[in-house]
Write the structure tokens for this entry.
Amino acid sequence: MHRKAEDFEKPIIELETQIKELSLFPSSSERDKKLAKLEEELDSTRQEIYSNLSRWEITLVARHPKRPYTLDYVRRLFNGFVEMHGDRHYGDDEAMVTGFGEFNGRPICVVGQQKGRSTKEKLRRNFGMPHPEGYRKALRVMRLAEKFARPVLTFIDTPGAYPGSGAEERGVAEAIAVNLRSMAMLRTPIIVTIIGEGGSGGALGIGVGDRVNMLEYSTYSVISPESCSSILWRDADHPEEAAEALKLKSEDLQGLNLVDEVIPEPPGGAHNDPQAISHNLGVVLEKQLDELTATDIDTLLEQRYQKFRAMGALAANSGQE
């Protein structure tokens, strides 16, 4: 059973290693010819593997340790970013990044979940799982954005909100619920983008917006495949079947009208070419910001309400039949 994206990426990794080793040799016609052949083989292998991913394999790509995180996009897309800290009630949750900056000369607000790469950073960021103070910090900053008429861009990448006793004691469910209500009524444009894992209520806590985007190999689901497997099969050893049943990949959700736009990733996924995916994301954000900022705010709120009010209507009607 696949547990890491590196398992099905093994042919890609082997070719990349060969290319790296061959590149160390002095240039010659023979070496350059072999190098060109290997690079051509790498491109075709990458294309073949990534055009036939199962839903479980897409889940693993969404969790890839080299996948760009919120702050990676902040560095590539936004200028003059100033991070805001603390919820003014309890503390600062580093699993949630908030702040203000500029995007192509336009003032914006950024809210996003942040994972870590090293062990130390993973612990500091709590593996991208926010506590209630993270959601309260996000709402505090979004209300500032509303006050100063700045569009809000949120980036979802979390296995879920932190389920520990401390989070429960401080009201994590209430914090998420308040965010859902408040974002529905926030009088400024909101664009949501799922960049990796979109897990459960932890994702929804910053997931209400006028546009909801997903990167091609990201996921969005009420539960992880492993947890779903534990419930349905009484153990966590059936994530492949659970992932298929959950319909958690981007094209599934777009087909159910839960996602507005799927942003294509470069061959091999976002982690293979962070610059390319940042460009693709930037093009979509610019287009959507132009559309939303040109719309009267009362009209925008009504459209936002109708958008989320209509979700689930298809399933309800099919159930009646």
Observations:
- The chain has a mean pLDDT of 92.
- DSSP finds 16 helices and eight strands in the chain.
